[in-house]
Amino acid sequence: MSRIPADLRYTRSHEWLRQLQDGTVEIGISDHAQEALGDLVFVELPELGRRLAAGEACAVVESVKAASDIFAPIAGTVVGTNDKLAHSPELINRDPYGGGWLMRVKPQSPEEVAALLSAKDYEAVAAER
Amino acid sequence: MIARAREPLIFEHSRPGRAARAQWPAASAEDERSAEHIPPALLRRRPAALPELSELDVVRHYTRLSQLNFSIDTHFYPLGSCTMKYNPKACNAAALLPEFLARHPLSPPELSQGFLACVYELQEMLKAITGMRGVALSPLAGAHGEFAGVAMIRAYHRSRGDPTRNEILVPQAAHGTNPATATMCGCVAREIPVDADGDVDLSALRAALGPRTAGIMLTNPSTLGVFERRIEEVARLVHAAGGLLYYDGANLNAILGKVRPGDMGFDVMHVNLHKTFSTPHGGGGPGAGPVGVAQRLLPFLPLPIVGRDGGPASAEGGGESESDDRGESDDRGEGQSVRYRWLDERDLPQSIGRLAGFGGNAGVLLRAYVYLRLLGREGLQRVAEFATLNANYLSARLQQVGYDAAYPRRRASHEFILTLRRQAQELGVTAMDVAKRLLDLGFHAPTTYFPLLISECLLIEPTETESKETLDAFVTAMTRILQEAREDPERLQRAPYTLPVRRLDDVHAARELDLAYRERRPQESSDAAAS
After folding, report:
1. How confident is the model over B249-308, as pLDDT tens digits?
2. Collapsed DSSP state (helix, strand, coil) of residue A5
3. B511 vs A41: CB contact, 8 Å cut-off?
4. Fewest C-beta in 10 Å: which of A58, B23, B299, B472?
């Protein structure tokens, strides 16, 4: 069974989102997602300053099985990306909720975060297939 | 059987001074002079480091390499969504005629009437098969045809003063190239989910349609190996919203002579001549991805197209030389008055343009021409019938012996999906393990891990050219694999055992890509494998 930390928010497309002290949010993919994708070999991240619409494809993770779009869970501006992933995409496999984070975003409207799935709701999504 | 020894690179066979001089092209004085026109900075200072071998060394090297491969000529090749069927050797007949082989693409039409007649008749046959009103043969591959198709959809909306339509809807069960095509054409791809039985989710489709909808790209039957049952409703909804329907011909083999994309409501499509119509594929080409269009897209077809002056009239891609009605294309016996010619920008001023040199891959077109002439209407129906019969037989047998179908409630089309999800959970054996073990047992593996929608999946397409005996042998191998999975899962996890290489570390290969050949110094030449 994959890990689903209780303090994060989730999407149906298997991204997670963590609220940071400074009002920005950190975004990554769930343990369930990395497990389904298998060993990641390439990650493409958005440019700093890019404005994202909610649901917009904003990054790509590629495994030997497939390349998958990552969708912005909320609208906002990209303020940071995890540059270590360029050389070590396996960080996502090893530590999806920590060292494998993808990007930091300054939310356009913080209320959007509360509308995302709770850990409990996401558990049901991850069990679907 | 597969050869087992490692074959050195051709560079490793090289010995200084060895050569096959009889194979050298004769250097002319003209060649010498032409070098004078190249700026000195661009000329080589040293000769190219080409391998030096005798003719026999080269023949043996490449023959041995070919023996390291699985191929349709040697093995059952059930690679789903690729239609790796056998291509009858007879279909090479026209393509190998010296008159066609030596024909220069710039030959004047009056010296090319035979070739142009074949191309014209192929256009007409593809129109009859697809239910489209016009066909252009020049795109060089499936994705190239898709590009032409979506470019035409965009040109159509622009011509109507509706240029903001830039969304292409793509069902989850579509081919991976579809969203890529949309993006290449400056559109945005939006994914539409499918329901539990593999049909497009109509409520999601309704929600996605709107004034920005340029069109939808569908494969029918889809990559889930099932026929989209509500296609007419999908067409009605998309058309009502102002969008057009694109048909991806990847799976055309399943419906040949049975149902036509034009009759389902599609406006534009491509056909993979190299899958469905007798050109071998999988080796990287050449292929051909002709496009067909309904009435409203005729003016936008890519060039060139072959038109005909004189003879019975036929629906043509806007060709001015045609009278306006359609009709059967059989022009034999029309005598001297029939002339074929390339249509150009004067005939189709709104054409999206030229996408390939000359008329496309002539050899591929000629193979498709012979294949269609050999099979005829009834033969094509038999292709679809046996392709679907073989898939359904294989699906039923594999379920009998203990495999799970991804869509057990649906009848398969020409291909079907097994899911190893249960075996992965219970036995720790994955779809990849099964695929690798199949190689040991003398079968090319089916498509693995596609479509992405189904976890631990194998996409199996036997095609119409396989006998019941071959299918039964495949079932026997799959039965044995399932037994091994229960009794000795490790045996599967370490497969293959009998090939020149064992289980490859594809993660390592992808993360640390290293494809460059580096010449070894003599003292290193006894080293193990080349990288």
Report:
1. 999 999 999 999 999 999 999 999 999 999 988 767 799 999 999 999 999 999 999 999
2. coil
3. yes
4. B23
Look at B452 and A68 and tell me if their CB atoms are within 8 Å: yes
Question: How far A67 CA sits from the closest chain B CA (Å)?
Answer: 10
CB contact under 8 Å between B455 and A89, yes or no, is no
Beta bridge partners of B418: B405, B458
Residues of B in contact with A129 (CB under 8 A): 455
3-state SS assignment for residue B472: helix
CA-CA distance, B489 to B152, in Å (whole number)? 52
Residue B139: how many CB atoms within 10 A of its CB? 26
pTM, two decimal places: 0.86
Q: For chain A, which domains are there?
A: 9-127 (2.40.50.100)
Would you list the DSSP string of B329-388?
Answer: ---TT-GGG-EEEEE-TTT-TT---B-SSTTS-HHHHHHHHHHHHHHHHHHHHHHHHHHH
Q: Do A66 and B506 touch (CB under 8 A)?
A: no
Query: What distance in Å separates residue A118's CA from the closest CA in chain B?
Result: 23
Helices B177-184, B142-159: axis angle to 10 degrees equals 40
Which of B430-437's residues contact partners 24+ apart within 8 Å by CB, and which partners?
B430/B456, B431/B456, B431/B457, B431/B458, B433/B485, B433/B489, B433/B492, B433/B493, B433/B495, B434/B458, B434/B478, B434/B481, B434/B485, B434/B492, B436/B492, B436/B495, B436/B496, B436/B503, B437/B481, B437/B484, B437/B491, B437/B492, B437/B495, B437/B496
Which of B407, B421, B432, B452 would you mutate first to test chain A, the one with the most A CBs within 10 A?
B452
**Pairing mode, strands B188-192 and A25-29:** unpaired
Six-digit token string for A112: 């959007």
